[in-house]
Design goal:
With 415 residues, the protein is of the alpha/beta class. 39% of the residues lie in helices and 14% in strands. It contains 13 helices and 13 strands. It has helices at residues 32-43, 59-70, 83-97, 112-124, 140-147, 166-172, 195-207, 247-250, 265-278, 286-294, 298-321, 347-358, 392-409, and strands spanning 46-47, 107-111, 130-135, 151-156, 177-183, 211-215, 241-246, 258-262, 325-327, 334-338, 360-361, 363-364, 383-387. The strands form 3 sheets. A 7-stranded mixed β-sheet has the order 2-8-7-6-5-3-4, with helices on both faces. β3, α5 (140-147) and β4 form a beta-alpha-beta unit. It is globular and about 60 Å long. The chain binds 4'-deoxy-4'-aminopyridoxal-5'-phosphate (PMP) and glutamine. The site of 4'-deoxy-4'-aminopyridoxal-5'-phosphate has 13 residues, from α4. The site of 4'-deoxy-4'-aminopyridoxal-5'-phosphate (PMP) has 13 residues, from α4.
């Protein structure tokens, strides 16, 4: 693997690129997910890195997409998204959370939640503005904020519980703060923010007149009977909130890239102004297919959630039995370990050693921390993310491989 694991720098100072790329893309090379998934293929490793399931969504969804292609849903859909999906999204928000959005003005279908978030950020962040996000954060956040000319500031969630501290949140607000970007259930830590944390977010946003962008793509993947609290349900906060969702996680179709934004009409209109010049539209036959299942497949989604909980327990329990300190996630399909429990200091080094020693690919959490920290700042350095979105058999095989590799790795062998 090439030297810097987490960030590939576009310009090699020894061979400057001509024409040179804009400063706004500095440091934005290949994503850690693309890099690690390619490594899994190249080394024939089990891929417990990039978060995607290894089985597809409900048959009715897949059939509906086939039918939509066969029946001619193959040209540009409307800019906001097909009406039946917008109606299904509005109804989903009403039925699950009591939020009422007008599907003609307050719902926007996007190319995955990634585009929803990028469009919202580009629509509202001025150069020099600060965006607060729970750190570690999903890698598209710093990239989108950088493209907007803004600055992402992290509010640290710390192990073992990765809880949000109201004090830390308040302390991070400056006169330049414009957006509070929240993500619950949280990637990569698996934390699910509780009612107190959500109250803190709502109050800080209101006190400082911030826009809230809420990433809720794992809304249905919460464990042990916990519920998901959308920030827009807190009193007085919906008017300043844009919420992103995605069919990818809920229905195990991550490659379809059907996402959405909901929120008050003026906020959605601003995001739409950007979205229409990023992709214009996408997924013509996939949108009606998602509309078909969004209101009818709660049982399927509950089954996915329950089976993920079983797989979480399998992976987290197995890792702990192998002496790997691992934090129990309350949601998502990710779990975080501290590799110091195996004698390593650096999660990236561990992730680099793992394919050849054990035939497993993971994601070092350094990819989810602010890369502008001081070089000697150790925050998150020893953390590693695993996904349990794979078949039980794959997880068992991974644990067996780890057990076999442990004698050659414990003690941080190659450094
Ligand atoms: N937010 C989070 C927290 C994610 O983990 C992901 C990964 N899929 C996304 C957004 C992007 O979602 P999509 O694939 O729908 O673009
Ligand atoms: N959300 C997925 C993860 O966190 C990856 C999505 C992507 O590759 N952009 O693993």
């Amino acid at each position: 693997m090439s030297a810097p694991l987490a960030w590939v720098v576009v310009a090699d100072p020894r061979r400057p690129l001509r024409p040179s790329p804009a400063h706004r893309i500095e440091g934005l090379g290949e994503t850690i997910f693309a890099e690690m998934s390619a490594l899994a293929v190249a080394t024939g490793s089990l891929n417990l890195g990039q978060g995607f399931p290894d089985s597809d969504g409900p048959p009715a969804l897949l059939d509906a997409a086939r039918q939509a292609i066969a029946s001619g849903h193959n040209q540009y859909p409307p800019g906001l998204g097909v009406p039946e999906l917008r109606a299904a999204v509005a109804e989903h928000q009403r039925r699950h959370y009591g939020l009422t959005w007008d599907s003609d003005h307050e719902v926007l279908v996007t190319t995955g939640a990634t585009e929803a978030l990028a469009a919202a950020i580009l629509a509202f962040v001025e150069p020099g503005d600060e965006v607060l996000a729970l750190e570690p954060f999903f890698d598209s956040y710093p990239a989108a904020v950088q493209l907007a000319g803004g600055r992402l500031r992290g509010v640290l969630l710390e192990p073992p519980h990765f809880a949000l501290s109201r004090h830390a949140l308040e302390a991070a607000v400056t006169p330049r703060t414009r957006v509070l970007l929240v993500n619950t259930p949280h990637n990569p830590t698996g934390a699910v923010l509780d009612a107190d944390a959500m109250r803190a977010v709502a109050e800080v946003a209101a006190d400082h007149d911030l826009l809230v962008i809420s990433d809720e793509v794992y809304e249905h993947l919460t464990f042990d009977g916990r519920g998901h609290i959308p920030i827009a349900t807190l009193p007085g906060i919906a008017d300043r909130t844009l919420t992103a969702g995605s069919a990818g996680k809920t229905f195990s179709v991550t490659g379809w890239k059907i996402g959405w934004l909901t929120g008050p009409a003026p906020l959605v209109a601003a995001a739409r102004a950007v979205k229409q010049y990023l992709t214009y539209v996408s997924g013509a036959p996939l949108q009606p297919a998602v509309a078909r299942v969004l209101g009818t497949h709660d049982d399927w989604v509950a089954g996915l959630r329950d089976s993920l909980q079983v797989r979480r327990d399998l992976l987290v329990g197995g890792l702990r039995d192998l002496g790997m300190e691992t934090y129990t996630p309350a949601g998502t399909y990710f779990a975080v370990s501290d590799v110091r429990s195996w004698g390593y200091e650096d999660g990236a080094q561990f992730a680099r050693d793992l394919p050849s020693r054990a035939g497993i690919v993971t994601i070092p959490c350094s990819a989810f921390y602010d890369r502008h920290r001081e070089p000697d700042d150790e925050t998150g350095r020893s953390l590693l993310r695993w996904t349990f979105s794979k078949a039980e058999g794959t997880l068992i095989q991974a644990l067996e491989r780890l057990q076999a590799a442990r004698p050659t790795m414990a003690g941080g062998a190659s450094r």
